[in-house]
Write a structure and sequence with these properties.
The protein contains 21 helices and no strands. By secondary structure, the chain is mostly helical. It folds into two domains: about 250 residues, no CATH class; about 90 residues, no CATH class. α16 packs across α17. The termini are far apart. The mean pLDDT is about 90. Its main location: endoplasmic reticulum. It is a multi-pass membrane protein. InterPro entries: PIG-V/Gpi18.
């Protein structure tokens, strides 16, 4: 009798684990279903506009209270490099920063090209037009994000997503003269069209991604991870039947190759975008060692905030990657993993930017919030928005640990 009870209990336990695992696995609709969902998705444009206006007015009020320039603050740090590319192109030799060994080769060309266009070749104020450009790109990205939610997360709240992105910690990067908003737009467009199997569009989006940021190159690698995870060894046979998939792998990195050609013509070094990273203290190493050393600062030198904080953010990123993997969102997991671990191998600087700059991390966070009671989820979003106001104040003070 006892043995029988134990066997039943064991079976019940395994059944519950299996049910839990099945509940975690994300739905993958067919391309035709995905296309219907994308086309019929309801986009809360009023909330998108309201969220952007309210949050930006709050940031503007902080600048006014501190007698600081909102536009100038949004164009500092990397924004000044993008402005330089817009006005004079890429440097012939290194000359920037205190040691004179930095150059604008680290910054990819698509965002400054758009900035040049919206300023009519530099005739209009680049700071004003750059802030407007970044926010318009973000609004469009939020619209695409709601479509992607309809495809992959039909139970998620588009309103929660919109307010989370508009107000979360570090969201001020989306208003700055930075390429984050553009990258979000292109990344979400490529994810939607991949789910709908509009592969010609995916080729275009991935090409433009690799002209926007170095991490854009990882999209095609993450696609390969998804194909292997879903089709296993049959993926290799399927590639012969789907030459369009192979073409995505060819076209995706083409934006990077074009940029490398420009750098070779300008400097004689096609890899100048990588070699110049040493000016910012970035050298390839072990990402795990960098992570452990950064976390160690909490115990050995807690007053040294920057590496400890950056390492803690990396740890959050690793947890979100694991969460995407548990849900078998293979493409998103691959994008997140490459976006985090490649920069982490070169150091801890700018880790929060890499996290917020890749939309799949925010989507993973939204997955977790969606599983909470609605009031708690909205309360956490509000707390994040308040914390972001403190970050914005530090940004106005040119706190270098926010770069």
């Amino acid at each position: 009798m006892n043995d029988s009870t134990a066997v039943k209990a064991e079976r019940m336990g395994k059944g519950r684990l299996a049910a839990l695992g099945a509940a975690l696995i994300a739905e993958t609709p067919s391309p035709s279903d995905a296309l219907v969902r994308a086309r019929t998705a309801s986009i809360p444009w009023a909330h998108i506009l309201l969220a952007l206006v309210i949050t930006r007015l709050a940031w503007l009020a902080i600048a006014a209270h501190g007698d600081q320039s909102y536009l100038h603050a949004m164009a500092q740090f990397d924004g000044s490099w993008f402005k330089g590319i817009m006005t004079r192109g890429y440097d012939v030799e290194a000359r920037g920063m205190s040691d004179g060994d930095a150059a604008n080769w680290a910054f990819f060309p698509l965002y400054p090209a758009l900035l040049w266009l919206v300023t009519l070749g530099g005739q209009l104020d680049p700071e004003l037009m750059g802030v407007l450009l970044s926010n318009v790109l973000l609004a469009a990205a939020l619209g695409l994000g709601c479509r992607y939610l309809a495809i992959t997360r039909p139970d998620a709240s588009p309103l929660l997503f919109v307010w989370l992105v508009a107000s979360m910690p570090y969201s001020f990067y989306f208003s700055a003269l930075y390429s984050e908003s553009l990258f979000w737009l292109l990344c979400l467009a490529s994810l939607i069209d991949w789910r709908c199997q509009r592969t010609g569009r995916v080729m275009l989006w991935t090409l433009l991604l690799s002209m926007t940021r170095a991490t854009g190159v990882f999209w095609v690698i993450a696609m390969g991870i998804e194909l292997l995870a879903r089709l296993r060894l049959a993926a290799f046979a399927e590639l012969w039947r789907r030459p369009d998939w192979l073409l995505i792998g060819v076209m995706g990195p083409l934006g990077l190759f074009l940029f490398m050609a420009v750098l070779y013509h300008q400097t004689g070094d096609a890899l100048a975008f990588s070699h110049v990273q040493i000016s910012w203290g970035r050298e390839m190493g072990n990402p795990i060692v960098n992570l452990v050393q950064g976390l160690g600062y909490w115990f050995t030198a807690p007053e040294t905030l920057r590496p400890a904080w950056q390492a803690s953010m990396a740890l959050i990123g690793i947890a979100l990657i694991g969460w995407l993997g548990l849900q078998r969102r293979w493409l998103e997991m691959g994008l997140a993993a490459f976006t985090l671990f490649i920069p982490l191998a070169t150091g801890l600087d700018a880790i929060p930017r890499y996290l917020i700059g890749m939309p799949v991390f925010v989507l993973a966070l939204l997955d977790l919030l969606t599983r909470l009671p609605s009031r708690l989820a909205w309360g956490l979003v509000a707390l994040g928005a308040l914390f972001n106001l403190w970050l914005v104040e530090n940004w106005y003070d040119a706190a270098f640990w926010l770069v």
